[in-house]
Design goal:
The termini are far apart. This protein has about 350 residues and is α/β, with parallel strands linked by helices. A hairpin with a 2-residue loop joins strand 16 (about 340-345) and strand 17. About 25% of the residues lie in helices and about 30% in strands. It is built from 8 helices and 17 strands. Helix 1 packs across helix 7 (about 175-185). It has helices spanning about 10-25, 40-45, 50-65, 75-90, 100-115, 160-165, 175-185, 205-215, and strands at about 5, 25-35, 70-75, 120-125, 130-135, 140-145, 165, 220-225, 230-235, 255-260, 265-270, 275-290, 300-305, 310-320, 320-330, 340-345, 345-355. Strands 12-15-14-13-16-17 form a 6-stranded antiparallel beta barrel. Strands 3-2-1-4-7 form a 5-stranded parallel beta sheet, with helices on both faces. A 4-stranded mixed beta sheet has the order 9-8-11-10, with no helix packed on it.
Amino acid sequence: MKKALIAMSGGVDSSVAAYLTKQAGFECAGVTLKLFDGEAADACGEKTCCSLDDIEDARSVCLRLGIPYYVYNFKDSFDEQVIARFIRAYESGATPNPCIDCNRYIKFERLARRAEELGFDRVVTGHYASVERGTDGRYLLKKAKDLSKDQSYVLYSLTQRQLKMAYFPLGGMTKEEARQLAESLDFINARKRDSQDICFVPDGDYAAFIERYTGKRYPCGEFVDEDGNVLGEHKGIIRYTIGQRKGLGLALPHPMYVKEKDLAGNKVILCENERLFSQSLTAKDINLISVEQIGAPMRVKARVRYNQKEQPATVVQLDEDTISVSFDEPQRAVCKGQAVVLYDGDYVVGGGTIV
């Protein structure tokens, strides 16, 4: 019998994934990952996936399913591979997506290695996506049936080895179907709210988290327009993201938005909305899934942020680790540090980090 290790957050999705995996005939064990401690863990609330109650919820589900349950401490790896990358990105003027790094380096790398050491064949999560085997033998990442919950965007970095080991039982379900199944099984978390915030930023204030975590103070500087005219004072360059309008604290004659950040001059450059659009981007640290390489210009649809509607584009691979994406129509507020993910129909071609 094949063995599956289920990553369980304490939420309804991973709980239903555990049930479906057991029903599929796997010998199962559930595991919750302890990723941080101290202030962040103590303060986490119901919007995140790390409250102290979550471990008890996951344990309760495993008890009901009759499968073993463990807690693994991956704090050091999470510090290094997720939190440190998150902080470095903001300090360099980028806007990161830590969920992508968590999937890449923790759930499907560190946890997968642990699973292999213990003789497990699969790592299971409650992500809404699915894995298929192509006719050429490559493992493919496919969108979920429930497109409103599709999480293929945050899984684009999975390698062929990681996809071979991954199992996503919820790929063919809707969120409501998952909740109804959890209710029918009398799971304690059947109607638990979905996590929304970055798990290690308990109150959603990522800038305050960075200052507490690093012990640094990021100095105030100038808001300027594209001509260098001073418009006011900002409260620290890490507090602003490309395209932001609200929360600038400025009284301006017309709406202005963050266009870019001048790290050397500690300035935040503002512009009018129409100046936020760009038609092309470059991405590095790429991972290709459906193809080994992009040998010629390829028509795709692309997303430059998690909730964006896919946009028609052409992608060219410039070298082993770099792609250039040209959109049919200009895109608003393309952010350095975010991922561009490429699709061919329902399948992920690959993606990379916008530079």
